[in-house]
Design brief:
about 450 residues; about 25% strand; alpha/beta; single chain; globular; eight-stranded parallel sheet
């Protein structure tokens, strides 16, 4: 069911500027944008003092907990997304069972149609020998390669297997880029450690750089679109400055921008453990510069909602990953209020950037004719993030105690409010995303 809305005199974050005016939504589509629109469609909202952005597209979530303990599912994950201003997500394939076949992909799409309150898309996971399944999965947003950090079928670490996928793929490839050989060597050096601070020493910046270089070279060699997931190091940023951005894109995650190895592991323990790891402030500074310079085009949460009991198991028996889909936009809006970014930059990194990277039509912009997936935010609202307020099924946040200014007050998919005034609106469901071929 499509919706209609009229929003009056809000700040509107257009692709190239921010203006104050009216936004008219009819039958799920942005029908008109202007200083004053004479007609009204559907519910009329007073947007005075509020800001409208395109709905966030989170291109990297794990809404089925990879640990298999069912801390999250598509229902709770999508509700957390909606509360965070996210109107579409792309879910990773390291579920149980892993999404490595067309049949399993279709099962995920069917499940999401029943449960997800926002739009949804799914990756199909590469294995050393499932290229035919990868190419037959027309409804997948892309192919995910785990060069490390995965068990069983989804680990593709041998160079010949990785190249085979790049040679034959018919859709964008997204890569978790850490070199498996380097990681094996580093783990041997720290095989007896129980110190969480050794996590970024084991999974060091060199492991990330080696893998990023390898897949970038394969992308250029075979003319294959590549998206590098969760870039973490200054060395990767420097290398990516030299690659063509129409062929190779990259993303950063808020936890790598806002947390630092100098203190994160001591402050919040295994809540800060993720792969690739939180690194020191030098790397976070380089990531920020990469965003400003266009070397990184997207921000993604890498939402991985492990149960807190598992996080308390003691390193190295603790799982890597943290929830984040609910707070990514507020954290970035806080940076706008702090003068570190602009609203247009945030919309570019979190809305239009992911839509371009994965060829998603009519999403990611406030523009006439685009789908009316929007988020209305109060840039003056300040809250303290707490575990108790978390909507994710895992029930905890790595940002507990952080004071953040700039919060969603209404999220709408195809013109229908799905989150407003702190509550999920019952009866709204998202749709499966579509993808188009790159021109």
């Amino acid at each position: 069911m499509l919706g209609s809305l009229t929003i009056r005199q809000a700040r509107l974050v257009l692709p190239d500027r921010v203006v104050t005016g009216d936004l008219l939504i009819e039958d799920g589509v942005i029908a008109e944008i202007g200083p004053t629109i004479s007609r009204t469609s559907g519910e009329e909202l007073d947007g005075t003092g509020l800001t409208v952005l395109p709905g966030v597209i989170d291109p990297h979530v794990h809404f089925r907990d990879p640990s298999g303990n069912a801390a999250e599912d598509l229902a709770s994950g999508s509700r957390a997304a909606a509360a965070g201003g996210v109107t579409a997500f792309l879910d990773m394939p390291n579920n149980e069972p892993p999404c490595t076949t067309v049949e399993r992909l279709q099962a995920k799409l069917d499940d999401a149609a029943e449960k997800s309150v926002v739009h949804y898309g799914f990756f199909i996971g590469a294995t050393p020998d499932n290229l035919d399944e990868l190419n037959a999965a027309e409804r997948a947003c892309g192919i995910k390669i785990f060069m490390s950090s995965s068990n069983g079928d989804l680990l593709v670490s041998e160079p010949k297997d990785i190249e085979k996928i790049f040679m034959g793929a018919n859709k964008p490839i997204a890569v978790h880029a850490e070199d498996a050989s380097r990681l094996r060597e580093r783990k041997q050096l720290y095989e007896d450690t129980t110190d969480l601070n050794d996590h970024p020493r084991i999974r060091d910046a060199e492991a990330a750089l080696l893998a990023t270089k390898r897949v970038a070279e394969l992308s250029l060699k075979h003319g294959q679109r590549l998206h590098i997931l969760h870039v973490t190091s200054a060395e990767e940023i420097e290398y990516l400055r030299s690659v063509p951005r129409e062929m190779i894109t990259a993303e950063a995650c808020p936890h790598h921008l806002f947390m630092f190895a100098e203190d994160a592991y001591d402050l919040i323990g295994a809540r800060a453990q993720c792969n690739p790891p939180i690194r020191n402030k030098r790397h976070a500074t380089a990531l920020w510069q990469g965003l400003q310079d266009g070397v990184i085009q997207c921000i993604a949460s890498d939402h991985t909602p492990h149960a807190l009991a598992d996080k308390d198991a003691g390193y190295p028996n603790t799982p890597s990953g943290m929830p984040g889909v609910e707070w990514a936009l507020p954290l970035m809006l806080h940076q706008v209020n702090s003068g570190r970014a602009t609203l247009n930059q945030v919309a570019g990194w979190m809305c239009e950037g992911p839509a371009k990277a994965y060829n998603i039509p009519r999403k990611g912009r406030l523009e006439t004719g685009y789908d009316a997936d929007i988020v209305l935010v109060d840039m003056n609202e300040t809250r303290v993030i707490t575990d108790e307020s978390t909507r994710s099924g895992c029930g905890w946040t790595p940002y507990a105690g952080w004071e953040v200014s700039g919060w969603p007050v209404l999220t709408a998919v195809m013109g229908r409010p799905v989150f407003r005034d702190g509550e999920i609106v019952n009866g709204v469901r998202g749709r499966a995303l579509n993808y188009v071929s790159r021109s």
